Amino acid sequence: MSRTKTSTYEGFTAEERAAMKEHAQEVKKASRRTSRAEKAAEAERDLLAKIAEMPDAERVIAERVHAIVTANAPMLAPKLWYGMPAYALDGKVVCFFQSADKFKTRYSTLGFNDLAKLDDGAMWPTHFALAEVTAEVEERIAELVRRAVG
Hints:
This protein is of the alpha+beta class. It is built from four helices and five strands, in the order H-H-H-E-E-E-E-E-H. 45% of the residues lie in helices and 18% in strands. Helix 2 (36-53) runs antiparallel to helix 3 and helix 3 (56-72) packs across helix 4 (135-149). The longest helix is centred in the N-terminal third of the chain and has 18 residues, at 36-53. The radius of gyration is 17 Å and the shape is globular.
């Protein structure tokens, strides 16, 4: 069968392809033979470096999210996940920060994977838009992170 000219599928976006390449590099880097402590320290350095590369407004939000997550869920290990700051439990990502700039979206988001224990009835949010981090937003993030690992 041949494709018709009306087909609009063009594959992955450039941003999605870049994220997949970053993930492949992260996996390769994590497989190196070093101690667990060295890997953890390197993962946190990589995460902080990625945050430092973000545009100013997003960097400020990502820094606050990092501080809140590490303060409220110290058992979560910082790491990069598809080039995004993420926090994992036993190697599995629980939550992550997605910069608006990364995928050319309107706002940054704080996302939670299915490992997070946020279940609430038959339907609940797993991604939260972050336009700024106020005291109220900080408390909400802290509550979500504590619930996610609770």
